[in-house]
Amino acid sequence: MSQNKTLFERSQKVIPGGVNSPVRAFKSVGGTPIFFKKGLGSKLWDEDGCEYIEYINSWGPMILGHAHPQVLKAVQEASFDSLSFGAPTKRELEMAELLVKLVPSIEQVRLVSSGTEATMSAIRVARGFTKRDTLVKFEGCYHGHADALLVKAGSGLLTFGEPSSAGVPEDVAKHTLTLPYNDIDALKTLFKEKGDTIATVIIEPVVGNMNLIIPHMEFLKTLRELCTKHGAVLIFDEVMTGFRVHLGGAQALYGITPDLTTLGKVIGGGLPVGAFGGRRDIMQCLAPIGAVYQAGTLSGNPVAVAAGLATLKLVQAPNFYEELTKKTKSLVDGLTKAAHDLDVKFSAQSVGGMFGMYFSEKAPTSFDEIMQSNKEQFNQFFHHMLSSGFYFGPSAFEAGFVSISHTDQDIHQTIEAAKKAFKVLK
Ligand SMILES: *Cc1c(COP(=O)(O)O)cnc(C)c1O
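Structure for Glutamate-1-semialdehyde 2,1-aminomutase, as requested:
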């Protein structure tokens, strides 16, 4: 029997569902999750010794590829000086200075240990600053698993949300409003009715958590204008897009400045680092100088920050994002052509090092549209590619990722394998 099966059976006895984060369980695509043992560059090896070219990058962080020697060296060096102090260190200052320098909207920043912590804390400081409670988010965006964010739309546009997870009190969910992505009219209506009660709007400026959805520029511009007009704090959740679509994040790519930004994934280079930052007047509301409490035993952890600093140093290389964008585009263009040559209803697109592929004629622009894509075909494609040694995200509703270590040869092989997979789709 394969090690993957044996290990998954053992895991299910002691870990709920056998996994420490739900998407890893392959529930959406069916079959047994792969247990990985080793990674190098664009490749992974599982516990059976099978080799894969991978397109998840650990859901984003591994933008340099796996086991990058300079990142490993930085981690080793930092670790010899102790793993944690719970006191200020020079490395975290260097990380903060770098984020302020590279991300246009960030004047001050605080480090945390995950994206979930970053968004949760950004929302709290936005509420403390505005002295309002209402939180607005968009359907299909994911911002971590804090209570206030596990909320789906109520029965009408202007009705408050309902919990989307058991264990979230209605009293918490009732402060969250959910709007459709890319819908300018819905935005205008909401602000007209409730604008002056809105504390904050949180958005993925390019969505990566319902597969890839690209924002309409007019939508983002309108959102920025309405938040400014009504005194609501605009949070760009760039946990995924930060240092992934552009050196300065989606805000630099589109030229729109949010009030607060949340970061994670790439800024830890594979170790747990998150951050939230933005306007100085808002960030000054945080304890110990302000009244909004936020803290963390391992926040700014020296080893994690060393991995992040080494990663951020390398992404500043000349033409890094041009090259990453080109690689990713060559993958999606190749896949699209292969599918169309075989009359498969398929589309694909990319922004920087993120991509989406959809079993639908046109690339979707909202949650409703993505839900109409052919999930069964995605699952067949996924399993065919997996058994041929190509590891994509195990769900039709996740974005894909290309690292700078992916070679033209890797991408060529992937497209050749995809041709075979497209041929056998039912
Ligand atoms: C991954 C992600 C999060 C959550 O980050 P974790 O580190 O998993 O807690 C939040 N927002 C976005 C946009 C993400 O992609």
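The first strand starts at residue 36 and ends at 40.
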